[in-house]
Structures are given as C-alpha cells and as structure tokens.
Amino acid sequence: MRVRQQIVRPHRPVRNLIVAAAGAIAIGAIGYVLYSNASEWAQKELSTLYDERDELINSLESLRETNAVLRERVAILERAKQVEGSAYRNVDAHLRSLQDEVLALKEEVAFYRGIVSAGKEKGLNIQTFVLDKEASPGAYRFQLVLTQNLKRVKTVSGKVKLKIMDELNGSSKELLVSDMNGKQTDYLKFEFKFFQRIEGRFTLPDGFKPERLQVEVVSSGKKPASVEKSFEWRGLSS
C-alpha cells in the first residue's frame, strides 16, 4: 500500500504581488516607449507632409503666374500678328493700286502716241477695237477709238456700224448695238475733233458662228467720208 507524499509549498503573497506589479510596470513602460516612438514618427511624417503640401502650393502659384504671363504674351503676339497682317494687306493693296495706276498710265501714253502717229494720216482713222465677253451667252462689250488728222481742228461727226460674217455660209449681218445706257440701235453716233472712245454692247444672233467682224465708220456732211476695218473674230475674242 502506497503512502501519498505531500509537498508543502510556502505561501508568499507579497512576492507574487511584487512580480505582478513589476510585470505591469514593464508592460506599461514598453507601451509608453512604443507610443512615444510612434508619436514622434507620426509628428515627423506629418511635418514632412505639411512641407510637401506647402511646396506644392508654392509650385501651383508659380505655375499660375507663369501661365498668366504666357497667356498675356500669346495675346500680345496674336495682336501683333493681326496688326502685321492688316499692315501687309494694306501695303499689298496699295502696291497693287500703284501698279494698276502705272499700267493705266502706260496704256494712256501708248494710246496718245498712237493718236499722234495716226495724226499723220488724212481723214478718219479706226485706231483700236477691243472686245470683251460678258456673263450672258453671246453677249459682248466693245471699245472703239476713232481719230483724225491732228492738223484738222474741225469737228467731225457721223455713225458707226458693226457687221459680222458667218463662217458657215459667208453671209454678213449687221449687228444691233446698244450704248452703255442700254439704248439699242442700228448704229452709234460719234462727234469729236481729235479722238473719241466709243463703248457699246451687242449680242450675237442664235446659232451664229462668227468669222470676222467689220467696223464701218461714216462721217456726215456735204462730203461724207467712209472708213472700214475688218478684224478676225478669233483674234478679238481670244
């Protein structure tokens, strides 16, 4: 029969209390240290974030100022471009106007030289005949210049008729002409001392294929004079 052995352990309540208190203090100390370190790290991180935020705000303000300056420069360049374009167009238009004036003056000089040369001829002279197409089919505008001997100062007057020859059958037909006011007639009148420009219009008959155009000038008076000049249609209408 076994005899149970009893172990007697001493009861030490103060010691256990001290150990528990020491453990609690150690845990609290460790928690405090962890909290202090975490709080310090958080403060540093928060300070860094604030600094970065301030830098971003400053950068944003700088970009806004730069953008405003660039917008102003673009607006100035656009205005300068518009002014430059307008000035260029004005200069170009002025140069074109001067060129047209020079061309007109050259044409006037050539015209008067032709009149002086024609003045050596006796009586009436058909100086030039110019033909231009108009918008309506078969409609034309013409300009005729008549001259006479410059030594004659007597006024000459008369009529101008236009005839056209058909290339198909060789027939001729007098054209109905109209002055620049639209008055239609068989002829146009002239009256001048040295020269005269005569302008008018006419419309070709339907189906008519012109080959030549003939200008007939007849003066009035006791001794009427007549001058005729024929022009190739291709040369006139080209």
Description:
The chain is α+β, with helices and mostly antiparallel strands and 238 residues long. It is built from 2 helices and 10 strands; from the N terminus they run αββββββββββα. It has 2 domains: 106 residues; 116 residues, Immunoglobulin-like, CATH 2.60.40. The radius of gyration is 55 Å and the shape is rod-shaped. The mean pLDDT is 79.
Provide the number of structural domains: 2
CATH third-level topology of the largest domain:
Immunoglobulin-like
The SSE order reads HEEEEEEEEEEH
The biggest beta sheet, please?
Answer: 5 strands, antiparallel
Coarse structural class? alpha+beta
Shape: rod-shaped
Strand order of the largest sheet: 1-2-8-5-6
Number of DSSP helical runs? 2
CATH class category label of the largest domain = Mainly Beta
Please give the share of residues in helix.
40-55%
User: What's the count of strands?
Assistant: 10
Beta-strand portion reads 25-35%
Ranges where pLDDT stays below 50 over 5 or more residues in a row are none
User: How confident overall, as mean pLDDT?
Assistant: 79
CATH homologous superfamily annotation of the largest domain: C2 domain
